[in-house]
């Protein structure tokens, strides 16, 4: 094949390729409308008929397990750690001695106050004995002058007042001395220890000497969204599991409700007590909880897509007499495909299945067959 033949052959191939590309583009352009029609585009004016129902809605929340009681123990006076009788993980009983501190200056003050108290007691007893003898001698009319009686009585009352002051001073320093012995405020477990023997401790220490927790009962803390708070009552059952043991299921009872909403989260704090019999759950574990919510009477549930949220508020679009009408609603419980709404709605009303801000109020809607929200979901 000569050079000219090669050039002619290459030009022929190029023309064939270009022709095929044009045919392919023409084929695609021609087939696009048919494909769109074949797929059946969604009708934006499709309506659903609503009716009241009362389904059991399962609310899923993440919560945290907390100990029933927890106390951080600090030193109340400047002192040194003399002995520590417990360690992390130890079980303790209420009133059990945990830490013994020592403060020589306080012990010296206790001894001094005790000596002053004993001295003042001796003075008072002597004065009172003199007063008693004088009063007995005065049983004979005029035996002792009235001024002498008044002076003896005044001295006795003064010594009695000084005795009471000495008692108060002694009791005060004795109470301070009692702070040197730290005892368990309740039965529980030592979960943290931050000091050793010989350490100097003060009330201003950042870390506590010990932390005691009562883990025999745990509190499941949950924050319930505002829309769901009316459906939760004391005594309701909550089922939950923890992330570290997803195969284990636990049950707790709602024991407390805060009765107020958190300003930031707009939710109510609730607590459910769980008896941690075998200690399988630990405080501060994350729990995945499921709470059944059911109303006392039927309400409206509509497709989530039917609810419009805009600057004008939250509403659904009702079709009445062939025209659209915006109906303001407030949202309630949420299901996977539907949401509870409250507003000026009635059984049998037809609403747009696909609500949109672009649908202006008063838009005419063709009279076409509608779906029912009670169809299989």
TrEMBL record:
InterPro entries: Beta-barrel_RND_2, BSH_CzcB-like, RND_pump_MFP, YknX-like_C. Residues 72-203 form the CzcB-like barrel-sandwich hybrid domain. Residues 302-365 form the YknX-like C-terminal permuted SH3-like domain. It comes from Sphingobacterium wenxiniae. This is RND family efflux transporter, MFP subunit. GO terms for molecular function: efflux transmembrane transporter activity. Residues 353-377 are annotated as: Disordered. GO terms for cellular component: efflux pump complex. Residues 220-289 form the CusB-like beta-barrel domain. Pfam families: Beta-barrel_RND_2, BSH_CzcB, YknX_C. Belongs to the membrane fusion protein (MFP) (TC 8.A.1) family.
